[in-house]
Amino acid sequence: MSKVILRSIVVNRKVHIRIKRRWNYVTLSLFALSFIVYFKYTLGTTFSLTKWKDDISCYYDTNDNNLSSITAFNPTGRSIFFNDPSCNVRVFHPKDACSIESAARAHRDWPIYVLFNSPVSNEELKRNDVLKVLMKLPNIHFARVNIEEFSMGTPAEGFVSSGALNDTDCAIALTEVLVKYITLYKWGGIFMEKDFIVTKSLSSLPRNWVPKSDDQSIASGILAISKERRSIAEAALRLLIKHHKNFDCTNGENVMAKIVEQECSTPNPISNAAISCNGFEIYGPQFFYPIESQRVMDFSQLGELPGYETAYTYYLWTKMGIGTGRKKRIGSRYSKLTRKHCPAIYYAFAYKF
Fold this sequence. Notes:
Elements: H1 2-43, H2 70-73, E1 80-84, H3 94-106, E2 112-116, H4 122-127, H5 129-134, E3 140-144, H6 147-150, H7 157-161, H8 171-186, E4 189-192, E5 196-198, E6 209-214, E7 217-218, E8 222-225, H9 230-242, H10 255-263, E9 275-277, E10 280-283, H11 285-288, E11 313-315, H12 333-341, H13 343-348
Parallel strand pairs: 1-2, 1-4, 2-3, 6-10
Antiparallel strand pairs: 4-8, 5-11, 6-7, 9-10
Helix pairs in contact: 8-9
C-alpha cells in the first residue's frame, strides 16, 4: 500500500513539474511579446524587428476634423517644421516638446509647424498635458498631414498612391522622411527632428544649408532648403524612392550626403571643414552637433556645455538609441539646457529632466 501511495506522489509531482514548466513557457512568451509591443509602441521609429512591418493604416484615416491640413496654412520659407510620425499622440514625450518649444522661443516671429501624420482626436487635444503646454505658445501650430493627399503634385505621388509605402519594413520612418522632403519641396524652410534643442535663432543663416554630425559625415536631422532650390528636395525624394527597399530602419536616410557630392565641384566636399557648394552651405558639427555621439554622457555632467557660444542647436542622440539612458541629474548640463530653452515644458515635467 505504501508503495502505491509513494508511486502516486512521484507521478503527481512529475505532472506538477510538467504543468509548472509549461506555464513558465507561457509566461515567458507573454512577457517577451509584451516587451516587444511595449517598445514598438513607445519608441516608434527607433525600434524594429527583421520581419516586423509597420502598420500605417492610421495615416490614411480621413475622419479627422480637429486639425487643419498644413496646406490651409500656406507656409512661407521662413517657417520651421517638425513631424510626429506616430499613430498615437499619447507617446508624445516632453523631450520632443522641449525641442519644439526651444525653436519657438528662438524664433518668436516665425511660425513653428508640428505636422501629425495621423488624426489627433479632440479629446487628446484637451487631455494631453504635453500638447496643452505647447498650444499656449502663440507661434506653434498643429497641422494634419495625410500622406496620400500631401504627396499629390510631387515626385512622391506615384510611389505613395501605388501603395508601395505599405510594403516597406519600416514605413513609419520612411514616411517621416518623405514628409520632410515633400514639405521642403512645396514651401521651403527649415525641417528638424524632435531631438534638437535650439539655443539661438537660425534667421541669420542662408536659406540653403545642411550640417555635418562629425568631421566625416553629412547629417540631415536639421536642414534648410528654399523653395527656389526645390530641386534639392526633389533629388532627395527621387533617391529615397529609388532606394526605398534598402532604407536603413535603424539609422534612417542619408540622401543628403549623395546630394552634397553632386552639388559640389570641390573634391571630397564632406571632408572639408566648411564649404559652399553652388549656394548650398555645409556647416561643421560645432554649429549643430557640438556634442558627438561618443560623448553623449557629457550632457549628464555638471558645468557649462562645450561650444555653447558657437552652437545653434544641440542634438541629444536619443532617436538613435544612444542617449536614452541619460541620467537626469539636477544641475547637469542637460538639465540647465532644457530649463533655459524650454522653460514651460521643463517646469511642467521637471521630473523627466
